[in-house]
Structures are given as structure tokens and as C-alpha cells.
Amino acid sequence: MLSSITRRFTLTTTTRTFARAMATGPAQGGHISDEMLAKLGSLSTQALVDGLWVMGWPSAQIDGARPLAPGMKCVGRAVTLKFVPARPDIAQDKPAGGESPEYEAFEKCGPNEVLVMSSVGPWESVGGDIKFLRLKQRAIGGLVTDGSVRDTDQIINYGFPCFSYSTTARQGPAAMQPWECNGVISVSGVTVRPGDAIVGDQDGVVVVPAKVADKVYSIAHGREQIEEIVKEELTKNPGPPGKFYPFMSGKIKVDSPLGKLLASKGITPENSNQFEGSADW
């Protein structure tokens, strides 16, 4: 005799009976090609944020992740690692040694991947020189965390881009344990799915959802082209930029000073999605 709870989660057909698992969606939202990944990496984080904003997507900047050293820039598909607060049974039940979720995540990383580690707090250590030597060996595309890292000088010497909340001398295991590789995580309140594009520069780190990566690139690239034209014009003819601002992608009026400037450069609603009525998102 099945219990009432079991019966409630049992699905019967004429030929088979299936025990239903708890509902969950797919961890990954899509695939980003190497070509598109390189294109996204050629843009500034500001342009990518603007592209997502005009599409109505939530904030995608990981505010708690700053470059560990000047000049660091990263781009890659996200490999995610979730930490949970330390508890004796968690330490006992998670796979031990080389089977730990963090080492599983390390081995999934290479030049086109960025390891994104979700910490339980900004000052907790997600790792240091010995663990991250493996990331150097894997030639990882980058490391991003809303926690802190140890052995700062050595990590900088390893040469891979690292973006963290800060640095610390603390040991991590006393506060948290790695629990899951390649699940959906929250990093500084921003959702990251495995396979999302992660782009970092001196202004911070942005998550571009895989499902809309092509469209975000189209908007952001178009916007950067326009900004270059505006800067060029203001360099040739110095003056306040106010006559060209504010402008929003998909809202530029053809008869505005900016619209006329763009037309003189061959950019019109016929070949750009930046104008009023031409937005394709």
C-alpha cells in the first residue's frame, strides 16, 4: 500500500508507473560559441550592462567582485561552484579529497571558462596558492568570486585574471564547504547559470545570460560604435556633449542632433537597431 504522499507524487499511465522527482529546471540556459564569446570579450562591461538594461533584464553586474591587480580582464563561459555554511554533517557527507566539488569544477575549466565561486560571505576565503596552482595549470580564463582569496601575491604571479571581493588571511573550511559544481548560483545577488558568459574588466564583472548572448552583443556593439562616433565628433568640435545626450539604445530619434550625426556616418534605422522603431528585442 502506497502512502498518501507517495501516491500524490506517482504518475500512472496505461503501461508504466513513474515516481516523480521534485521539479527543477535545467541548470544551463544555452550555449555560447567560441566566436560569440570572443565578441563579447571585445566589449566593455559598461556596454554589456547597458545592453541588458534596455532589454529589461535584471542587473547583471557582480558588484562584489573587483580585479585583484590592475589591467586584469577575463572572458569565458561560467563553471559554477556553490559554497554552503560549514556544518559537521556537510563536511562528512560531501565527497572527500580529489572528488570534492571544487576539484570537479577545476577540471571543467580551461582557457574559455571562468570559474565562478559563490561564497557565504565577502571575507571568507574561497582558496589560495596551493589549490589555485591547478587553475594556473589548466590555463583558466579567469576566477570570479564574491568572497575573498588568500596568498594574493602568488595568485597574481600565476597570471590568470582574478576578481574577488577582497583578500584575506582566513582559512575557508572553518566557515564554509564547497557543495555543488555547475548548479545555478547567486553571486552578490546576481544569478549565474553554467555556460553564461562572464566578462570582467577594471569596472567589474558582468554576467551575460547564454540565452540572450547574441542579442546583448548586437545592442552593446551598436552602442559602442555610436559612442566612438560621438567622442570623435566632440574631439574635432569641442563642446558640451549635452546635445547628443541622453540617448538610449532603441530610442534615438532620426531628426535629433545625434540621429543626424549618425546619418552622416552611414548609420540609419535601416542598418542599426539603435533608433526609435528599429529595436529588435
From TrEMBL:
InterPro entries: RraA/RraA-like, RraA/RraA-like_sf
Record bears the keyword Thylakoid: no
Sites where the protein binds Mg(2+): 151
Keyword Translocase: no
Keyword line: Magnesium, Metal-binding
Residues bound to substrate: 150
Single GO term (MF): metal ion binding
Known cofactor(s): Mg(2+)
Classification via Pfam families: RraA-like
The protein's name in its UniProt record: 4-hydroxy-4-methyl-2-oxoglutarate aldolase
Native source species: Fistulifera solaris (Oleaginous diatom)
